[in-house]
Amino acid sequence: MVYQLSNPIVKSLITSLRDVNTDALRFKHIVMELSRFLVYEALKDIEMTPKVITTWKGEDTFASIKEEDIVFVTVLRAGMPMIEGLNNLFVSSPSGFLAMKRDEVTHKSKLYFDRVPDCKGKRVILVDPMVATGGSLCDAIELLKTKDPHSITTLNIIASPEGLSVVQKAYGDVDIYVAQIDKSLNDDKFILPGLGDAGDRSYNTL
């Protein structure tokens, strides 16, 4: 299932990302903030567990998310600001990293780095700012499924309808939370109107 955020603050932040005058530092900060909006929505129904803590009046028990059962995985390099923002919220959750490179001729991605912790029985949240053709996201999901997670959810900033359709068709059991679904892909498989290359803009690789 695909869930698109509708909050006006999210839409305003997306507009700032599209602006070519937004510098790398601001761009990364916005991506981090949008990641938090996405995870708030994705985990709104997560089961909570009792946790004993020490308060100013002594020990007491309160509801808490078991962070150790959530694994955040990102696709390098563009996804780094997303996972950094989530790490600040979930300090006890492990993180994993995948690296893929898109062939500019075939538009297909190739995995060349896999450093993902144990996912068996855990909720995996895969973060990647852009879903263009959907190929990279499908490849990442396919790999993560071999690690026997409880579930896989993706968080994405911008997506094309074509890319989302590809992912949904291949992995209907994966929930996709996206901040903005754009109009289409162009002939070079770039999202329109999009925001350019998220990795380049985050790290001034221009």
Which helices and strands appear, and what pairs or packs with what?
Blueprint (H helix, E strand, L loop, with lengths): L1 E3 L3 H11 L5 H19 L6 E7 L2 E7 L5 E7 L3 H10 L5 E8 L6 E7 L7 E5 L2 E2 L3 H11 L5 E9 L1 H10 L4 E7 L2 E2 L5 E2 L5 H6 L3
Parallel strand pairs: 1-10, 4-5, 4-7, 7-9, 8-9, 9-10
Antiparallel strand pairs: 2-3, 5-6, 11-12
Helix pairs in contact: 1-2, 2-3
Structure description:
Helices cover 33% and strands 32% of the residues. Strands 1, 4, 5, 6, 7, 8, 9 and 10 form an 8-stranded mixed sheet that branches. Strands 2-3 form a two-stranded antiparallel sheet. It has a single domain (2-47, 61-203), classed as 3-Layer(aba) Sandwich (Rossmann fold). The chain contains 6 helices and 12 strands. Helix 1 (8-18) runs antiparallel to helix 2 and helix 2 (24-42) crosses helix 3 (80-89). The radius of gyration is 17 Å and the shape is globular. Strand 5 (95-102) and strand 6 form a beta hairpin. The termini are far apart. It is of the alpha/beta class.
CATH architecture: 3-Layer(aba) Sandwich
| Helix-strand topology string | EHHEEEHEEEEHEHEEEH
Helicity level, as a percent range?
A: 25-40%
The chain-level structural class is: alpha/beta
